[in-house]
Specification:
Radius of gyration: 20 Å
Strand order of the largest sheet: 1-8-5-4-2-3
Distance between the termini: 42 Å
Mean pLDDT: 89
Shape: globular
Number of strands: 8
Order of helices and strands: EHEHEHHHEHEEEEHHHHHHHHH
Low-confidence stretches: 71-94
CATH class of the largest domain: Mainly Alpha
Number of helices: 15
CATH architecture of the largest domain: Up-down Bundle
Helix content: 40-55%
Structural class: alpha/beta
Bound molecules: fe (ii) ion
CATH superfamily of the largest domain: Dehydroquinate synthase-like - alpha domain
Oligomer: single chain
Largest sheet: 6 strands, parallel
C-alpha cells in the first residue's frame, strides 16, 4: 500500500443549528476574548448578528473586535459587473481575500485575543485563518506567501474557529489561506502551514440555505473540482481516495438540488456541506491539479470568482486530460480513477460501475458539462480579461499534481475554450 501521512484535522461539529454551539465551545476552551470576522453574506439576516452577539455574551465570551464590513472596505475595489450581479444579494461582498485586509485587521487589534472566529464564505474563512496566524507572527502576511515572500511561515498562531456559510472551498479543513492582489504585480497565493488547519470547524448546513443561486453553484463547483483533482492527483492516498469518492457521491446527489431548489432542500444542503468539508481534507492531503493551477494564475489578473473559474475549466480540462492520457502508456490507473469519479458523481456509492471504461469516462465529462451549464457561468472575457492575457495565465499556472502534464499551449487552449 502507498505510504501517506495526514495533516491535522479540526475538531468538527457537523449539524443543522450547530452555530448555537460556537460560543459555548469557545467558553469550554477558555477562549474568553475573541476576534470575530463575519462575511457580508452571513449577516443577510439581521437577527443572525444580534443572536450571535447574544450567545457570546451568555457564554461569558467577550468579542474584543468585530469585522462585519470586511470586503466592501478592504477587498478588491474593481469588481466586475458580473461579480456585482453575483454578490448583489449579499449587498456587495467582494469574494476574494486579500493581504491588505489581513494586515489591516492585524494592525487594528490592540488587545490580547484568545481566538479568531470567522463566519462566512471561503474569503472570510481565509481572511480569519491568515489573521489568526499573523496575530502571532511579525511582519506583513505578504512576506510569508508562497511564491511571493521570502520568509517561511513559522506556524505560530492564535487558535482559529471556522464557520462556513457556503459549501465550497473547504477552507474549514485546509491548512492554507489563499490571498490575492489583482492587477500589476498581482498574485493569488497561499499562506500555508500544517498548524494553520482550523482548531474547530463548525459546519452548520442551515447557514448555507440563504446562499444565492450563483454563489451556491460556484461554491459547489469548487468543491467538486477539489474532489476530482485530489482524487486523481499523483499525491492521492487510500485515505484521501475514500473521502474523495464519498464526497463526489454526496455532491452528485445534491449539487443540482442545491442550485435549483435554493432554501427549500436542507437535505441537499447538508450533502453539499459534507462534500465541501471532505474536499478540504482531500486538497490539504492530496493536492489539486491543473484547474487550480490556472485558477491561481487567473486570480492574480482578474477578479474572477474562484469557484466560477473552476466550474468553467473543469469539463474541458477533464475531457482533454482523459483524451491525452489515453494516448500515453501506463495511464490506465489514472483513467480508471476518472471513471470511478464518474460513477461516484453520477450514481452515488451504491451505483455499480457498469458499462465500459469508455462509457464511464463519457459519463463523467457529461455530468461536469451539465453542472457547468446549470450554473449559467459567464465566460472568462466577462471579467474584463483581454484575450492576449490568456497566454500569460497559461504560462504562470502550473499543473500541480495533475495526472496529465498539460503543456503551456494546451493550457492556453483550455482557457481559450471558455473565453
Ligand atoms: Fe478551490
Amino acid at each position: 500500500m502507498r505510504q501517506f501521512d495526514v495533516a491535522t484535522l479540526p475538531r468538527l461539529v457537523f449539524a443543522g443549528g450547530a452555530i448555537a454551539r460556537l460560543a459555548p465551545i469557545c467558553a469550554e476552551r477558555r477562549w474568553s476574548r475573541v476576534l470575530l470576522i463575519v462575511g457580508r453574506s452571513a449577516i443577510g439576516d439581521p437577527e443572525f448578528r444580534s443572536g450571535l452577539e447574544r450567545s457570546f455574551g451568555e457564554a461569558g465570551v467577550t468579542i474584543v473586535a468585530r469585522r462585519y464590513d470586511l470586503f466592501p472596505e478592504g477587498g478588491h475595489p474593481d469588481a466586475s459587473p458580473t461579480l456585482g450581479d453575483l454578490w448583489q444579494a449579499g449587498r456587495g461582498e467582494i469574494p476574494e481575500a486579500s493581504s491588505a485586509v489581513v494586515d489591516a485587521i492585524v494592525d487594528s487589534v490592540r488587545t490580547a485575543v484568545d481566538a479568531v472566529v470567522a463566519i462566512g464564505g471561503g474569503s472570510a474563512l481565509d481572511t480569519g485563518k491568515a489573521v489568526s496566524a499573523m496575530l502571532a507572527t511579525d511582519g506583513s502576511v505578504e512576506e510569508y506567501l508562497e511564491g511571493v515572500g521570502t520568509r517561511t511561515p513559522p506556524g505560530a498562531k492564535v487558535p482559529f474557529v471556522a464557520v462556513p456559510t457556503t459549501a465550497g472551498t473547504g477552507s474549514e479543513a485546509t491548512k492554507n489561506a489563499v490571498l490575492s492582489r489583482v492587477g500589476d504585480g498581482g498574485y493569488k497565493k497561499s499562506l500555508r502551514h500544517d498548524a494553520y488547519v482550523p482548531d474547530v470547524a463548525i459546519v452548520d448546513p442551515q447557514l448555507t440555505l440563504s446562499c444565492p443561486r450563483a454563489l451556491t453553484a460556484a461554491s459547489g463547483l469548487d468543491a467538486i473540482t477539489q474532489l476530482i483533482e485530489s482524487y486523481v492527483s499523483r499525491d492521492a492516498s487510500p485515505f484521501t481516495d475514500t473521502l474523495a469518492l464519498d464526497g463526489l457521491a454526496a455532491a452528485g446527489r445534491a449539487f443540482r438540488r442545491c442550485v435549483e431548489r435554493g432554501d427549500a432542500d436542507l437535505e441537499a444542503r447538508e450533502q453539499m456541506a459534507y462534500a465541501a468539508y471532505l474536499s478540504g481534507i482531500c486538497l490539504a492531503n492530496a493536492g489539486v491539479g491543473t484547474v487550480h493551477g490556472l485558477a491561481g494564475a487567473a486570480g492574480a489578473v482578474v477578479p474572477v470568482p474562484h469557484g466560477a473559474f473552476c466550474g468553467l475549466l473543469l469539463p474541458g480540462a477533464t475531457a482533454v486530460g482523459i483524451e491525452r492520457l489515453r494516448r500515453q502508456r501506463d495511464s490506465l490507473g489514472a483513467l480508471a480513477k476518472y471513471a470511478a469519479a464518474g460513477v461516484a458523481l453520477t450514481g452515488g456509492p451504491a451505483a455499480r460501475p457498469t458499462g465500459s471504461l469508455e462509457e464511464r469516462l463519457e459519463a463523467l465529462v457529461r455530468v461536469l458539462t451539465d453542472f457547468a451549464a446549470l450554473s449559467s457561468l459567464a465566460p472568462l472575457r466577462s471579467y474584463g480579461l483581454a484575450e492576449d492575457g490568456l497566454a500569460e495565465i497559461a504560462r504562470a499556472g502550473g499543473n500541480k499534481a495533475n495526472p496529465y502534464e498539460f503543456t503551456v499551449e494546451e493550457r492556453e487552449e483550455l482557457l481559450r475554450g471558455v473565453f
